[in-house]
Amino acid sequence: MAAVPDPRDPRGKRYSLVSMLAVAVCAVLAGACTFAAVADWVRDLDQRMWVRLGFTDRVPAATTVWRLLIRIDAEVLSGVLTTWSRTRAKPVLGAGRRWRLVIAVDGKVVRGARLPDGRRVHLLSAYDTSTGIVLAQVQIAAKSNEFPAFTPLLGRVAAQLGSLAGVLVVADARHAQTGHAEQVATHHGHLMVPVKGNQPTLFAQLKALPWAQVPAGDRRRDTGHGRKETRTVKAVTIKTPGGVGFPHAQQAVRITRTRTIKGKTTREMAYMTVSLPADQAQPADLRTWARSEWHIENRVHYVRDVTLREDAHQARTGNGPAVFATLRNTSIGYHRSNGETNIARATRRANRRPTDLIDAVTKSNPTTQ
Questions:
Q1: Which end of the chain has less neighbouring CB within 10 Å, N or C?
Q2: What is the DSSP letter of 340?
Q3: 46: closest CA among 36, 37, 59, 33?
């Protein structure tokens, strides 16, 4: 964490930057949801633990914590903490000939935080679906949208992984943009996106394909939450003269979802493109990857809202909203890498074991939990 630039005036520093950041990370891993809660967490520790965190006879007040964290460079902090999280995570051993790393990209509005002009803070994140770690996060510029932020986000993911070669990026229909497809291909990666009414020409081309003549490649039936669902996947190669007008698209995909809830049956069809050929992306793979796009929403954004109370946190000043979102991402990734599925329970356990938590953050041994 010493790699994070210190924004404070060198004169009058009472606490080291590394100690302050270590406290912020530990406190949020233990469930702290506000700047005041971070200060309360360290204040409740005994003096022996203060010394381990780099303090002596006093610890920072809530206002001191707040003044530092709202000025920290959120993107640098995100890169540092992501690197730390990835060194701790167990290596993912891909099973099967067609296994590949899938990165889900999605944006989230921090509803409790607002910019000086009154607009809400909007963040775009990239999530490693195999480890549960957010690899990168960028704040969307004022008077803009997710499209321009996609390029810097992709660059930060490539920097974390070393390369995007062979990596599959999945995103929602807003990212069915020709520019995004070109950028992913430039990094030697692959893109899978649904196509909806925001791309009417492409949507019409996909819908007009002779799906009735295409055999079902995969069919999966699930039950749960009071419903029965069947997903039928069809895929057809379109990398031919006269294919669809989307860069690098190799296959068109149609997923038919049939749901029965309380005796009422509904059916909907989703159309997608993927830049992988059929020998590298079978219908069963396509079904799994299509559902991976929801992982970032269900396993990160929902947890940040409900468990870590992000939308209720009215952090409004400087980089505060983005910094605290980064800390929440780190907390989720830390507990996921420890095999936890219930993040609320994991944070409660961490709060009861501050010694283990401080070991994990301050020791160089990446296997310490």
A1: C
A2: -
A3: 59
